[in-house]
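Deliverable D5.2: sample structural annotation.
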Amino acid sequence: MNELFSLKDKVIVITGAAGLLGRQHADAIASAGGIPILLDLYKEPVEEYAKVLQEKYGVRAIGFQVNITKEEEIRANCTEIVQTFGRIDGLVNNAANNPKVEESSDKNFSRLENFQFHVWNDDLAVGLSGAFLCSKYYGFEISKNPKGGCILNISSDLGIIAPDQRLYQKPGLPEELQPVKPVTYSVVKAGLIGLTRYLATYWADKNVRCNAICPGGVENNQNPEFMKEVTSRIPLGRMANKDEYKGLVVFLLGDSASYMNGAIVSADGGRSVW
């Protein structure tokens, strides 16, 4: 049974690895004996966390500073990983822009009618174009493996359902200043579901599987009033703990999910079915 859920010596790249969930994905991989390759825009956090994982689990782990919106940086990093380890076994497309939803005293640029085109481009460049570029390079290397491998895209419950903007409303504010969940978050996360289905068939003949997780919101010191409102919309009555996706990540990346391909897995406490 332990071997069924083992990632022993599998070289797995994680984007956005310095973030709240990115660290959890890397920890999950290391705990299952894998070799996490942590990528992030910021060098110091991933290098430090790679050392933490090495000491904690006795596995190899490396952190790299990579801007996944820059194709040349991805190409160079992919080459370096293959030269170091000889292969890549898995990829977790986790990176995304997810700014806090906040009110404004002037003009709320998160609102669709005020949303700036350069922000749209920046958000899609990280969350969607970045996933495409990483799949293009790291995914192609996975396809060269005799045994194949796995690509795991981190979508969201908001890739399946629309955000309930009532969750973010502030009493007394005029409509033009009311905070909202930005349009780009839903578009990116829905786009990752489309990318998942495309990739699931593209390299299937080479035994490269691609699946997506649609996590619900993670508890992270949010405003108590927001917490009350959002948990009332979740059948389990709470938000996720940050470590609750680790088992699912290990399962989908490993041989235990060898016949799962193109699956869109909701892990949102039931929110998307209510």
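Annotation notes: The helical segments are 20-31, 43-57, 71-85, 117-143, 183-202, 224-231, 246-253. DSSP finds seven helices and seven strands in the chain.
The annotation will be released with the project's public dataset once the embargo ends.
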